[in-house]
């Protein structure tokens, strides 16, 4: 089987489809994704001071990230609908360069994995931070958004290697 | 006015709100965003060969990106609803490293900008590529997602400088 | 300009886009669509008797049709979001063959027409009738779904001619 | 039991409800639906030439059809939410009269059937073709939209007979 | 364990999360909720006369209530997605004071309860009545919205006591 | 004109419709709504202590309330889509009885009012509090949900009188 054949979102005619996973076993699935938004040091300061007393940027972004996991199948055309059983999102300030790092963990018992849900959580969490801070810093950028690890399913465990981009 | 005060998604008590833009003039708004997904060379080859005859990964991603702009206000908690008048999304293969670069341009006549819509288009376009290629390459990662330029509104023109991240 | 060029949902590279309507005037738009679902005579009888006292199939279908107009831009990838100002849906039993005929009228002040909203209302109204009656008649079929008339916009009035399919 | 009683989307008072399927067995369900959009010969030519090189009308319609299956329960008021395991959509040009024929196949393991999902895929696929071609042909009309076959569940296999409308 | 610890929508850092229910057994869940909207006697009369022949306020509200149960997880940020198997909504006029009382019953087989779905049905049903009657009575108010009973899950049966608010 | 005629969500046949507001002037609209959720004193204590350091129940409810305003037209069948320009939501603990009081203010420039958006914000804000505290207090109930004031439009200013329920 060539790699091309393995792009299984297409049938033999190359037409997009939602791959049938009906024959797959229901197993516990989990996925962890990460990503970050780089910003001016003054912007990060602003967010951090807000956390202390008022203006909870990270609290709003966390809710947006969690909610986005539940609508992943609406955003990604060929993704399967599935029933998530748990979602955790962590948003942590970091320095050099000034940034917020977002981690998401998503769990489900189903016939297909939750990698897209974890990646969508990270993307929407970071976009929400951008939205709330754009009035003071339009130059923010998002990077290093990727999968860290996934468990469950036929292909089993996968972990990002040290050399991954 | 301190920077903190300029995080205007919060009121004086630090509580989140949707900022009232009712007094702002309706002007033509436009925003351009960019971002890329880095992948194994073999994955890019697979996508490129698919474009030639069958398996149109980029065509599906483009549709997902355009549709996502119309739902940005559902994903981003404090974003205003607005009526987009035009969206264009471009997805281009590039090399060293192997990647797909996504550009989005969004237009609207309204009281608030369309930066979030352009950034959401790019994020969802890239996520859709990830979804369609993940069976052969889980190590892909997204980077350099940011605003390139925006026009219209009180703050007028903004362009990313050469030193931006 | 060839006909091909007039399929303006694509740019010069043939890539899908949401056409920019930002330069178009805001005018009053209206569209009327029609369609019908053909069924067994016993099914129609069942619906009609239900209308008299209990089991309001047509009332539920009418609500579904109206609601669908508000989400047309989510269903049709390149449709523009717009703010409908009025929707009316009529569902009428007819005979020889036994059927329900659905008419929809949609109004809006905007930069683009409401033909898709009227057609979506008809389609979803008929699908809802199918859903509610399928337990007794899976052989129902939908037909003659099309635009009757549209007003407003640059292209002005259009009416279905007598020879239309 | 009279036919009226079998319109089970209503309780004994004739009030709409979502029928309780909690006691039904989880079985593999599948449904096949079909429908077509009739158009001017020039319009079909335009679509077909587009397929060859640029302007992929059918590719966009296929994605819209697949996505619509995942939101059927939002469109059809009394439909049950369910987790689809697979969707395939085929769009084929045909002649005399000039038209595109849409076939959809939907699969699921659940307590209720997927007929509505298959019919919704066909309807939204055809509506999307209408949207993309309406600038050159407002007289297109949709017809012969119906169920071809369904499997699974208590009522088992059903196939459209030769005499169906 | 203190009560605070039992607000399990937060992790040990007090950050919101979607609690993992993956280890919980799948059991049959049911919940019953109630609520009412108080109005001027003339408004109730208007609704009741409408029921008799035309203007079916309660029929529209019932559909809105049923549909809202299917989207509860989109509205309530930390609610789990789940597949409802049945929903019934009853809307009854009552007097002294003039009001409509709404009862909802929701059923599901899952790892988490359906209390929120039943309460959301009642809230949206009452809001829909408000919408349809507000032109003649803006002073209507909603009250006594609460859970009556729930079954299933680890915590088993719960019933509202006589002294509940 | 009788009161019955003024239930204008129905046509002369008593069939539901989305009333045409296309002839109405675009004016600035605002609406204020209120409501409360009554709970055990221990539950309120739990929420209040959470606000101080961790477990921000009210912060999550505020976001849910704001987001719900943007989807009001999806929930309420005959509500018009409109573009909100501003939303503020306040959630305040109160005692005797122990409760959280929710105030919402919604603004828009449009052809129809925003009463439903303000009431929906309050309802969903209170439901979200219920969701987050239900593990320790299923007996909570919601009450006094109503409109306080609305401005703009043909009917102009309306304020709740002292004798309102």
TrEMBL record, chains A, B, C, D, E, F:
Q: Where is the Molybdopterin cofactor biosynthesis C (MoaC) domain?
A: 18-153
| Name of the protein this chain belongs to | Cyclic pyranopterin monophosphate synthase
Q: How does it assemble?
A: Homohexamer; trimer of dimers.
Output the superkingdom of the source species.
Bacteria
- Similarity section: Belongs to the MoaC family.
Enzyme type, top EC level: lyase
Offer an example of a GO molecular function term for this protein.
Answer: cyclic pyranopterin monophosphate synthase activity
């Amino acid at each position: 089987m060539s790699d091309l054949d393995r792009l299984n979102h297409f049938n033999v005619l190359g037409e997009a489809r939602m791959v049938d996973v009906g024959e797959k076993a229901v197993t516990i699935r989990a996925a962890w994704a990460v990503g970050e938004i780089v910003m001016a040091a003054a912007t990060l300061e602003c967010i951090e001071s807000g956390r202390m007393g008022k203006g909870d940027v990270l609290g709003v972004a966390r809710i947006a990230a969690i909610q986005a996991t539940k609508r992943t199948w609406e955003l990604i055309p060929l993704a399967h609908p599935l029933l998530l059983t748990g979602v955790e999102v962590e948003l942590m300030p970091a320095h050099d360069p000034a940034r917020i790092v977002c981690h998401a963990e998503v769990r489900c018992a189903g016939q297909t994995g939750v990698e897209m849900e974890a990646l969508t959580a990270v993307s929407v969490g970071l976009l929400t931070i951008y939205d709330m801070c754009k009035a003071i810093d339009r130059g923010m950028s998002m990077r290093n958004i990727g999968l860290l690890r996934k468990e469950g399913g036929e292909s089993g465990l996968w972990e990002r290697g040290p050399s991954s981009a």
